[in-house]
Each structure stands twice: as structure tokens, then as C-alpha cells.
Amino acid sequence: MGHNAPVKVPVNGPVNGPAERPLILVNGTLELGQRDWVKLYANYAERIAAAGGLALVLPPVGGPEHLEAALAHADGVLLTGGDDFHTEPLGLGPTHPSAVRTPLAKQEFDLRLARAALDLGLPVLGICYGMQCLGVTAGAGLLQHLPEDRPGCQEHRASALHSVSVADDSQLRAATGVTSLEVISRHHQALSEVPEPWRVVGRDSEGLVEAIEHTSHPFAIGVQWHPELSTFDGPHGRLFAAFIAAARAARPARAAASAR
């Protein structure tokens, strides 16, 4: 994944001060080797900052208590892009030979994080692998390798550019302000369909699932493309702005609940 030019965040930005910036937990990626690394591409943090939030990387370590403690301080969760799924533990058949597998411990952590954030009512934005995490937690099917699973389909790898149609009656439409947009794609896996309470709210010109949202959650949206790689001044930036606005709006209710 590349790195765009840094986003300049004005001193007098979208919030009045640091204390008002919603805290967004971000899962990042995990690289295993002689020394294991948790890595976050700066584009994600830059977009969160430009929208008025504060990004904090959450390493995939610790048990349920660690995750519960982290989420107690969070105003929202961003599930980033990443590698491919181990599908056997998910009941989705053998993992495709072309898969670049996410470390299994991280995959399990990410799925727990997604479920816990949704259960708590935290605003959640899933990007690429992050969207697939949201779908998989609900029992969605997974296309493991494009174009093999959809012969003749358009390219979705290597920063491919293509259009996505957005459902007019969706949160995604309200967030982005558009019913069609150009996106940057970096994936070869995709959700086939999603079960309720999720719904598909974005598809490419060939019908591939490109965006989903939770119908009974204040803000839970997944997009298959990479909005952090597009310019902030446009629908992709407005998606981040809507996410941060939802996180800011959720904070007073969470504070009141904690005080009881």
C-alpha cells in the first residue's frame, strides 16, 4: 500500500481542542518475523486527524479483559485493510492457494474486536479486509479469489480504478453525498452477500458487493475500496468526516452510561 502526501490539518480544525477529538482505535496490520511488528499506514491516521479524530493503534495482544479495557476508552473503531483470511476456521472451506494469510491470532483478534465494537454500539468503519471482517462476523460468504470466482470480471487489484453505485436510501449515501463515486481498489477477495441485519449499499458495475451497512446500528459501514488513498476534499473525505462525527456524538451517551 502506498503513501499519499501528508494531509495538512489546520490549527483551528474541525474541533476546538485535543480533548474534544474522538479516540478511534485502529487495528493495523501484523508482520511476523525475527521480531514481530504492528504496522499502520499513515494514510489512515491522517484521514482520521483531518476529520477531527485521534487515531490509536490497538495491537492484537492480550485476552478479553485487554480488549474490553481498550474499548472502554474508545469512541469508535476503524478496521483497516489487510491480508487474506484463513477460511477453514470460519467454516468457509479450504483457504485458496493464492491467499496471503493474515496471522491467525490477528484474524481472531480482529473478529473479536469487530463483534465487541458492534455489541457496544461504537461507530465502526471497515475498509477492504475490515469490511470483510464485519461481514464474516455475521456469517457472510466470501469470494476467495477474483477473477477466478467471477470469470471475466474487472480488475480490483493493484490500485485499480472503477466506479461504485451507492444505494440512495443508505447511511453511506448520506455520508458521502453521492450515489456514484470512483474508487481505488486493492483486493482479490470480496463478500458474496451479507445476511441481516446487514445490507448491501454499494456495488460495482458488475454487481460485486462494494459497501455494506448495519441496519440497526447508529453507524457501522464497510467499504471494499480504500477511501484513505483518495483526496480528502470529496466523498471519501466526507465518509471519514461522518464517521468521526458519529464517534463524537456517541461520546456523551457513553460517558453518561459509565457514570451510572
Observed structural traits:
6 helices; two-stranded antiparallel ribbon; alpha/beta; nine-stranded mixed sheet; Rossmann fold; 13 strands; 260 residues
Structure commentary:
The chain is an alpha/beta fold. It has one domain: Class I glutamine amidotransferase (GATase) domain (Rossmann fold), CATH 3.40.50.880. About 30% of the residues lie in helices and about 20% in strands. The protein has six helices and 13 strands. The protein has helices at about 40-50, 65-70, 105-120, 130-135, 170-175, 235-260, and strands at about 25, 30, 35-40, 55, 75-80, 125, 140-145, 160-165, 180-185, 190, 200-205, 210-215, 220-225. The strands form three sheets. Strands 4-1-5-6-13-12-11-8-9 form a nine-stranded mixed beta sheet, sandwiched between helices. A hairpin with a 5-residue loop joins β12 (about 210-215) and β13 (about 220-225). The longest helix is centred in the last third of the chain and has 25 residues, at about 235-260.
Overall average residue pLDDT: 89
Indicate the CATH topology.
Answer: Rossmann fold
Radius of gyration: 17 Å
User: Please, how many domains?
Assistant: 1
CATH class categorisation: Alpha Beta
Distance between the termini: 44 Å
Secondary structural class: alpha/beta
Report the strand count. Answer: 13
Kindly report the name of the CATH homologous superfamily: Class I glutamine amidotransferase (GATase) domain
Order of helices and strands: EEEHEHEHEHEEHEEEEEH
What share of the residues lie within helices?
Answer: 25-40%
In terms of quaternary structure, the protein is: single chain
What low-confidence regions span 5 or more consecutive residues with pLDDT below 50? 1-18
